[in-house]
Write a structure and sequence with these properties.
Two copies of one chain form a homodimer.
Chain A: H1 2-24, H2 30-39, E1 44-45, H3 46-53, H4 57-69, E2 73-77, E3 85-89, H5 91-112, H6 117-138, E4 140-143, H7 149-165, E5 183-190, E6 193-203, E7 208-216, H8 225-239, E8 244-249, H9 254-262, E9 266-268, E10 279-284
Parallel strand pairs in A: 7-8
Antiparallel strand pairs in A: 1-3, 2-3, 4-5, 5-6, 6-7, 8-10, 9-10
Helix pairs in contact in A: 1-5, 2-4
The structure holds a DNA duplex (30 and 30 nucleotides).
DNA sequence: TCCATCCTCTGACTTTAGTCAGAGAAAAGT
DNA sequence: ACTTTTCTCTGACTAAAGTCAGAGGATGGA
């Protein structure tokens, strides 16, 4: 298995990686080219670019100056915070971007051109599969303090999500409170952006834990992240000596209910009075 | 379709490309790392390395000197040709190579580790598919002079192949001669190494052409190269005003016969006295 | 208000990457 | 025997990539 992955890595970096750079830099130094590509995805604060591309601030400053001198980007001071500078494309920059798009299409074209129709279809399908699974494997799940900004962001997205799904909306003040200091929270991130979470509230006296706040961002649905979060919560729970996992859920969350059943949870009598819950599940760990 | 390929390129270069380099260079400059990797596939003449990695001779010289100073490779003069120098790994170099292998495995591991079993299987299968098709698309087919060394190499491989397959072997002097100056030869190359060929001998008076010397190297079987060569020969023939394509073949070449039938050839009466032939096929082009 | 922090920029580097011209030795062609 | 070609190396470059220290303005918090 590992050997096959390695072989793939070799072939693909050779074919895609090498060409891509040479082709898409258009005589520009690679650093500048990458930066241009990044800026053209929309106006960007320099500090964001710096962290995304992991560049030294001095270096970035010079790269931007280069693009500015070519007339491709304009830089202006943020009106809200005069320390922050924002770069965006000039009309000439947008024209260049269009050209880059064209070249990128051309490159993709050369990859499928030698193949016949059925091979092309197979290639594109397999590429989609690889890409999806690679993205899934790029998601990083780790324990995070509930007060961390990323955790807060997850919570507000979670509540917003519930509000659109529940019949009659959702009011966080009505739901049973979960004290932040008594839970273990896992946050899933893709490119350092939070895309999902799940929490465990352990009740040591009963060797029991409640699964709470299971949320997966719509942008990463279908990657098996919900399943992964649940599995990791379970592993955590075992490590803490938990023998029973419990959770409650709303009847509108059909995928979640499917996930719980598939993961071995069985429906039980209501074990609390959570106002938004319609179903209660439990799973015995062995 | 193109959009999907582009999306794949982006994700994959990000995930595989970037990491690969950082991970496998071990503090060494990338040029040196690549070179080391190449040398460790076996003792290599510097001139081969130069053409394979497309490096300037002065540059290569310095890169090798660097690896030599680190004690990883030894360089010696070729006994047969004192101009040529050959590099190979020292024991320390082999140890380093082993370490690189380990890291490479580790990297592959991190790619599949976050996935569950079924996802892993899907990923590996899709990777194999992508890789195979990308290799297929890297094969370059073009008209080549039959006297070109690559063409000669194809011919000798072709004859050697026939000798192992035909009942009672194959003797090139017995077969019907095909004058080199009257044919159009297509040679398929992968990484500039010849891996297949196919020729067309046009008989203008009869608006007819014979397909000859169809050969695909065992190293690239299953990539649809035979089909591609046949299709390109057909396109060529059309361009030359040919209305009928003919070919003869030996009954031991079962895949070839299958290919001809699938490509629309139908079996006909013997139209020549080729001693090694058992089947004669023809196809009308419209 | 003052101080620590944040954000960007400039100057002064170092290291890689890569190019070009030519020297010197060996081999191949004539 | 000669010339040409092949192969490697050295010297002398340039450009890109990246690092480090610190200056200077803006902001946020105590």
């Amino acid at each position: 298995m590992v050997a096959k992955v390695r072989s793939f890595n070799r072939t693909v970096t050779q074919r895609v990686g090498a060409l891509d750079d040479a082709y898409l830099s258009r005589g520009r130094p690679l650093g500048q080219a990458r930066l241009l590509w990044e800026i053209s995805d929309g106006p960007s604060e320099l500090r964001r670019l710096r962290s995304r591309l992991d560049l030294d601030s001095g270096y970035l400053s010079r790269l931007v100056a280069g693009l500015q001198k070519e007339g491709l980007v304009a830089v202006e001071t943020d009106p809200d915070d005069a320390r922050v500078r924002t770069a965006r494309l000039t009309p000439a920059g947008r024209a260049e971007r269009a050209e880059l798009d064209r070249l990128s299409d051309e490159l993709a074209e050369t990859m499928i051109q030698p193949l016949n129709v059925s091979q092309r279809e197979r290639l594109v399908a397999a590429m989609a599969e690889v890409e999806q699974l690679l993205v899934a494997s790029m998601v990083d799940v780790r324990v995070t303090d509930p007060r961390h900004p990323d955790a807060q962001l997850c919570m507000s997205s979670y509540y917003a999500d519930l509000a659109t799904r529940f019949d009659g909306g959702f009011d966080p003040t009505v739901t049973r409170p979960a004290e932040d200091d008594a839970i273990t929270l896992l946050v899933a991130r893709l490119h350092e952006e939070p895309v999902g979470c799940g929490a465990l509230k352990v009740i040591p006296s009963e060797h029991c834990a409640d699964v709470k706040r299971m949320w997966v961002s719509p942008t990463v649905r279908g990657l098996g992240l919900g399943r992964r979060l649940l599995t990791e919560l379970e592993t955590h729970a075992r490590g803490l000596g938990v023998r029973t996992l419990r959770l409650e859920t709303n009847h509108t969350l059909v995928e979640a209910i499917g996930l719980y059943r598939a993961a071995g949870f069985v429906e039980v009598e209501a074990f609390n009075d959570e106002p938004y819950a319609h179903h209660w599940f439990a799973k015995t760990l062995d």
